[in-house]
Amino acid sequence: MPAFGSFSLLVALVLSAYSLLAGAVALRMLATGNRVAVSPERLAETARRAGIGSFVAATCAAFALVWAAFTNDFSVAYIAEHSNRALDIKYKFAALWSGQEGSLLLWAWLLTAYGFVLRVRHKVDVTLTAYASTILAGIQVFFFLLINFPATPFSLVQGPVPPDGNGLNPLLQYAEMVIHPPMLYLGYVGFSVPFAFALGALMMRYPGEKWIHITRRWTMVTWLFLTVGIFLGMHWAYNVLGWGGYWGWDPVENASLMPWLTGTAFLHSVMMQEKRGMMKSWNVWLIFSTFLLAILGTLLTRSGLVSSVHAFAQSPIGTWFWVFFVIVLAICIFTYILNRDHLKSEHHLESLVSRESSFLFNNLVLLVACLTILWGTFYPVLSEFFQGQKATLVGAYYNVIAVPIGVFLLFLTGIGPLLAWRSTSMRSIRKNFVTPSIAALVVAIGVIPFGVHPWTIVTAGEQGSFYAWITFTLAAFVVTAIFAEFFRGARVIQGHTGRSLLGSVVQLTRRNTRRYGGYLVHFGVVLIFIGISGQAFNQSKEMTMSFRQSMTIGPYRIQCMDFSQDSNANYDTEFALLDVYRNGHKVTRLAPELRLYAASQQPLTVVANHSTPAWDLYVIYAGKDAATGQPVIKAFLNPLVMWIWIGVLITILGTGIALIPNLSAALAAQRSRVTAAIPEEVVTAGKAGD
Amino acid sequence: MNRVTRFAVLPLLVVLAAFTLGSADTSARFDRLGHKLMCACGCNQELLACDHVGCPNLAQETAELTAAVARGDSDTAILEAFQAEYGPTVLAAPWLTKFNILAWVVPPALLLLGLGGTILLVRKWRLRTVPMPAIAQDTHSKEIRERIRRETEL
Amino acid sequence: MSTIASGLLLIGLFLYVFWPDPNAEAQRNKTRLEYLRERRDNLYDNLRDLNFEYRAGKYPEEDYAAQRAALENEAAETVAEIDLLETQTLAAPLSAAHHSTL
Q1: Which of A112-121, A306-315, C87-96 has the lowest mean pLDDT?
Q2: Using one digit for the tens of pLDDT, what is the confidence trace for A281-323?
Q3: Is residue A352 within 8 angstroms of chain B, CB to CB?
Q4: What is the three-class DSSP state of A441?
Q5: CA A493 to CA A507: how far, in whole Å?
Q6: For residue range A56-82, what is the model confidence (pLDDT) as tens digits?
Q7: With 90 as the cut, is the pLDDT of residue A559 above it?
Q8: pLDDT tens for residues B59-87?
Q9: Chain A, 124-163: which have a CB under 8 Å from a chain C CB?
Q10: How far apart are CA C8 and CA B139, in angstroms?
């Protein structure tokens, strides 16, 4: 089977290369009109099919690797390294992406899978798809070169075949961890499709903005995958790493956030291009940078350039990525310079107070956030280069710098939808801002009795409470604005159709799924912001607990009922049983655990979390007191965390709705069919006139 | 930016000064400083966020911090002592010195530059915008307008 | 086993890629007319949006009137050009019967 895998990879490389070359030649012939023996259409068709073929070959290779994992074929070095016999079935799948070579194979396979869908659906716009397919084939060539030569997953072990493998990192033996990397990769890889379309449209000087329409869904799906991937990672970190937090500003986390930020900016600013023919150069560069940042993120993780808990072992493929990065950047710049006159705007901004300018500011803030993170991530490298010593920038730094930016973004989320396209008059502003402002004021005062004291920024130098207060206030503004939008729209529908208010909301959403789905996403994002701002009020306590001893945190009393240890084939474990009381009533029993995995000799904390809308009671087994043998229990009270996960679910729902075609678009299609039918009558009339 | 936000909070302060909480106690200080320091084992995590079981540095650093806070050393003294012992990477955020100032200045500078640039750009565009010429009011264009209105009704 | 699978994969893919396809999709560039129609649809969408938001009470009367006029002007220009091109392309097949399939 390893031989079949290697061979499939080689076939995939050859097919990708053919697709790239044949596609490029065919498109060149079509563009210049120089024809040789073979017709460019036929050549382009073989290129397209070679692209589809590369998907089949890559699938065979991925299958061969998974097969090797399932059959415990430890003659394959990669499997010996990342799997073992005792490993649970579902985690054997995860072996595909738990190491460098396998995850690159997954990346390449996903790329060909996206390419497969694109090439099968080529009738949307044959020429544009041919360009995009050829560019995608170029990216494929790079990844297949990587996994065919410097990082092949099918290399065999030197010497005798080991009886058992090293096993999967226990931190990764967690259900969410099985889907987190593929989601993230789907997001990273997916941006190559809008990238390929944008570059292709620019190369062929595609008239009009239809390419955005074609790629819109691709971009949204990709964005969704990336979002889900990032939040799964957060959820995993929160529930597995056991330090009571979910985001650590680790370079690799940053690497996934950067393309997410530029991707989000792109999703917003393409609307200006679609609707008003503006910002064309900007959009092209946004999607170029998103793709480049995805590559840079991979480069960061793979090259060992910056230290991180996520980093794979230092390896020579960093150089390959650098070369690829530079080539892609050069192609982008070259194409842009050659065709930039094609990107002239049809309209200009007419007012500083308009939907357009709010998009402009939103883009600016997202971009600054991205550059800040880029700067922070690379700062240790710069520092070492310029002052000879490493300096780290983590948590505290980003909290000071990034939190104000986030708050500003939340502010824009609120006012953007209230502003009209082109320009907004003062009267209109008064009209739309009154209700949300009142709501904001009510919340601003209303949260103070609950312990949100913004003045501590001056009195105690505490920023958390102040930012939390601003976040709650802005959240009230945004949420009211969103609901007002739904309500007003639904009233119009109600007036027209006589439906119930709820029915009208549904109808309203179906008429313009992107807008109202988008509002729902905004709502989800607001909830996420609220959940994050709860961080300002986190409490924690650590205590060595003997039998029946209690500790109090917030409103809870935790009593230790038992502690013990156990072991099985896979790991040894120590745990404690804790009863949780609130107001004298028992609420739940928690069982935090500490495991030591046999194969890898790695420890893993199993967090016990009692989650409520108000707060999480998050308890970990921190270890054993050396002298007494009693468990050291660490308890956290983390307010509002649940709202982050609820916000993510709403974001997913909103994106899902935005992906559904509009109802009115269907009507418009009918209408255009009717208008297209008219000319025939004219023709017959003309003939009769002859 | 900080100064601006402080001014914004000022009026509230005057009214609500009576409710102000006392200054942070020792355990809060320990928590705060613990998040300004890094674990020195190379895991790239903040000291109080380090989750390694059997981490070679965690116990020692935490003990030193506890002792220093109990002694009542100032924040700066504690951080400096740690830097002297473990090197500059032990600080979660670097000191405001020469080059390190860049780390803090660049992001806000970017934001301000961007904001200024965007406002300038919008103003320039606005000046360039020419009002659209009124369309001829002949019967044909009227007919077209009628058609457009009909087709874009709700 | 591996060798057979590899051989099958190679032959299968080779046949799929190079099997002559008599009716490969025609590659052509978008015509001006198609471009204008896309543009018209876009402007129509914008107008519908504007009407809807006005009904929802988001715009004061004078803002609405000004913006609608601007959009209608643009749409009218586009529609006029579409009409012109449509009559031209309709006239063409009458003179050269087989040309219209292009």
Answers
A1: A306-315
A2: 899 999 999 999 999 888 877 766 665 555 555 567 888 888 9
A3: yes
A4: helix
A5: 8
A6: 999 999 999 999 999 999 999 999 888
A7: yes
A8: 778 888 888 888 888 888 888 887 777 77
A9: 125-127, 130
A10: 70
Q: What is the pLDDT of residue C81?
A: 86
Q: What is the pLDDT of residue B51?
A: 61
Give the strands of the sheet with A608-611, arranged side by side: A539-544, A631-639, A615-624, A608-611
Evaluate whether A393 touches A380 at the Cβ level (below 8 Å).
Answer: yes
Q: Which two tokens stand for residue B36?
A: 């300004």
Does A311 touch chain B if contact means CB atoms closer than 8 Å?
A: no
Other chains touching A, judged by 3 or more CB pairs under 8 Å: B, C
Q: Where are the domains of chain A?
A: 1-170, 174-183+222-421, 425-511, 537-643
Mutation pick from C6, C19, C38, C73 vs chain A, by most beta carbons of A within 10 Å, is: C6
Q: Do A308 and B119 touch (CB under 8 A)?
A: no
Provide the whole-model pTM. Answer: 0.85
- When pLDDT is averaged across residues A251-266 and rounded to a whole number, the result is 91
Q: Residues 6 or more apart from A34 whose CB is under 8 A from it?
A: A28
- Please state the domain extents for chain C: 29-92
| Chain segment A594-649, per-residue pLDDT in tens | 888 877 777 788 899 999 999 999 998 888 888 888 898 989 999 999 999 999 99
Which two three-digit tokens encode residue B122?
């919008």
Is it the case that residue A169 has pLDDT exceeding 60?
A: yes
Q: Are A320 and A141 in contact (CB under 8 A)?
A: no
The complex's ipTM works out to: 0.80
* Alpha helix ranges (H) inside A209-278: 210-236, 251-276
Nearest CB among A7, A40, A274 relative to C27 is that of A40
CA–CA separation, B119 vs A440, rounded Å? 27
Residues A25 and A18: their CA atoms lie apart, in Å, by 10
Strand A631-639, strand A615-624: pairing: antiparallel
| Residues A203/A24, Cβ–Cβ less than 8 Å | no
Tokens of A60: 């065979």
CB pair distance less than 8 Å for C79 and B144? yes
Flag the least confident range among A188-202, A225-239, A385-399.
A385-399
All chains having 3 or more CB pairs closer than 8 angstroms to chain C: A, B
C24·A41 Cβ contact <8 A: yes
Residue B49 to residue A244, Cβ atoms within 8 A: yes
- Measured distance CA(A199)–CA(A284) in Å, rounded: 8
CATH topology (fold) of A537-643? Tick-borne Encephalitis virus Glycoprotein; domain 1 (2.60.98)
Helix (H) or strand (E) holding A543: strand A539-544
Beta-carbon separation of A404 and B1 below 8 A: yes
What DSSP string describes A126-183?
HHHHHHHHHHHHHHHHHHHHHHHTTT-TTPBPSSSPPSS-----GGG-SHHHHHHHHH
Cβ atoms A638, A494 nearer than 8 A: no
DSSP secondary structure letter of residue A661: P
The reply to whether residue A455 touches residue B126, judged by beta carbons under 8 angstroms, is no
Which two tokens mark C95? 């003179």
Mean pLDDT check: name the lowest of A327-336, A630-639, C68-77. C68-77
Are the C-beta atoms of A421 and A353 separated by less than 8 Å? no
C-interface mutation test, from B137, B144, B146, B147, most C Cβ less than 10 A away: B144
Least confident piece of the model among A117-126, A192-201, B91-100, C41-50: B91-100
Domains of chain B as residue ranges with CATH: 2-90 (1.10.8), 100-151 (no CATH)
Name the DSSP letter for residue C27. P
Are B88 and A391 in contact, with CB atoms under 8 Å apart? yes
Under a CB-based contact definition with an 8 Å cutoff, are residues A621 and A574 in contact? yes
